[in-house]
Design brief:
Layout lengths: L2 H12 L5 H28 L2 H26 L14 H28 L8 H7 L4 H34 L2 H14 L7 H18 L3 H21 L1
């Protein structure tokens, strides 16, 4: 092999796979996601009502997100490892998960206290409350599976593995964490809920960057969603 070919091969191997092309596909895919979900929800809530409509809507949302992950993976010839599905030290990961969970909840409780002190009432998630109220054991299991398992794996692969992974190619880790957390929170389309989800996104991003794996962030996100399911179910 000629020297020029060796240099070219080495440069190709060092080129990051999560580049601006991946980032562009993410942004275009998110725009397409909202357009499709608007159409899908229009059909769902026209022909279906109650809990079934909410389940179908949430399930379709996760399916579209997962399809976006698969499309980006296929078009950019990425591996699952490229998107953050890497091995991690379980003990060290779990310790960091609980540390960050306590820190994020402390910050969010301060935020809620400041809102109440300012006379601002934090609205509950009526859709989630309706979905989780008075469940049978089968429905409770399905709620946990959908919200605390499936949704967290899909979202962490997309927002940390793809989005944050692409951003950190072009900027420092903390800038990438903050930008990805802001996008993650903003896409939930809840003004008063922006800060708590932004703080959550920072914690999730920190875990991903520190361990070079989405598994700690999946554990954190899943544990957080599991507690939400349990608390809202008990309250209703």
């Amino acid at each position: 092999m000629a020297e020029g070919e060796i240099i070219q091969t080495t440069a190709s191997e060092q080129k990051p796979k999560l580049d601006k092309k991946v980032l562009l596909r993410f942004l275009v895919g998110i725009a397409a996601y909202f357009c499709l979900m608007f159409l899908i929800n229009t059909v769902i809530f026209r022909f279906t009502t109650g809990r079934a409509a909410d389940y179908i809507s949430i399930l379709m949302s996760n399916i579209l997100f997962f399809c976006l992950v698969l499309i980006i993976k296929a078009e950019m010839s990425l591996t699952w490892s490229d998107m953050g599905l890497n091995q991690v030290n379980i003990a060290a990961g779990l310790i960091d998960v609980f540390k960050i969970w306590f820190l994020t909840w402390f910050i969010n409780l301060l935020y809620i206290f400041l809102l109440f002190d300012s006379g601002i009432t934090v609205p509950g998630n009526e859709r989630l409350s309706k979905l989780l109220q008075n469940p049978s054991l089968v429905i409770l299991f399905f709620n946990i599976l959908l919200i605390a398992v499936i949704a967290t794996i899909v979202e962490e692969t997309l927002f940390r593995g793809v989005l944050l992974g692409s951003l950190k190619t072009y900027c420092g880790p903390w800038t990438a964490i903050i930008v990805s957390a802001a996008i993650f929170s903003a896409l939930h389309l809840e003004l008063l809920g922006f800060v708590p989800r932004f703080v959550l996104g920072i914690g999730l991003g920190y875990l991903y960057i520190k361990h070079n794996s989405i598994f700690p962030s999946v554990a954190f996100h899943g544990f957080n969603n599991l507690l939400a399911v349990i608390v809202v179910t008990a309250a209703t």
